Amino acid sequence: MLSLLSSLLACDPPDCDRADHGTCGNACCKLSIHLNKVVTTTIAAALNTSLSEGGPDGRFRLMPTHANPHGFADLRPYHISRSGGREVHFLGQAWHETEKHTYNDTVNLLVMSLGKGTILEAFSISQVGGAYGDDGQNFKNIAVLMKGLKKLGYGEAELSAIVSEAEHEGCPPPAGESALWAAAPRSSAGVVLGALVPSVFAPAAGLVLLGLYAGARAAAKRDAARQEGEAGLRAAGVPMAMR
């Protein structure tokens, strides 16, 4: 019985090495991914098209949003700003079914502009209640989508130069192992310093591991982000149904 449960729950490699344990009450994974010199419209359109076709593995389902029954909502008319010079542009959601067709996860995608590039905040959470651990599945959901960017016509060398993980909540890299995406050293304000180091698309030794956030600091950041988002929506006059 135990072996059967293990088989049903297990994430199928690769990219199952960043398990989460109850970060959001349930297991979840949030990654902020910087795409250098890639505009938000390109990323949003690519994700919307890919997800509408089942995603890279055929097990994603694009969900409607309040503003768009066919996928990503365009929030650019509301001119919503966030800290660090980020501008909120697009918002989307998908459901993902695990390989063994046992569970579903919800993946939320927030696309923001930053200078000449894009910040993608990808958040995956286990739908089934009581999922304290996810065996790495929520991280894998995001990894599958990011690897699918190859379909945009970028080569692996190009992707390694434009993609980096800016920060994460939950789903920490294993101690002593390379992160799937790595970021250059960061200042205390969270600004990426220096050039981006190689990502999963061009694995290399010596990738910089992201430090784990203390629980109190992570909670404070979540509260601050929520308050900032609510203030921005109120200032932009976004309808209540979109909050």
Automatic annotation (TrEMBL):
The keyword Transmembrane belongs to this UniProt entry's keyword annotation: yes
Keywords, ordered alphabetically: Membrane, Transmembrane, Transmembrane helix
Transmembrane segments: 191-216
PANTHER family per record: PTHR38564:SF1, SI:CH73-250A16.5-RELATED
Protein name from the UniProt record: Uncharacterized protein
Organism lineage: Eukaryota, Haptista, Haptophyta, Prymnesiophyceae, Isochrysidales
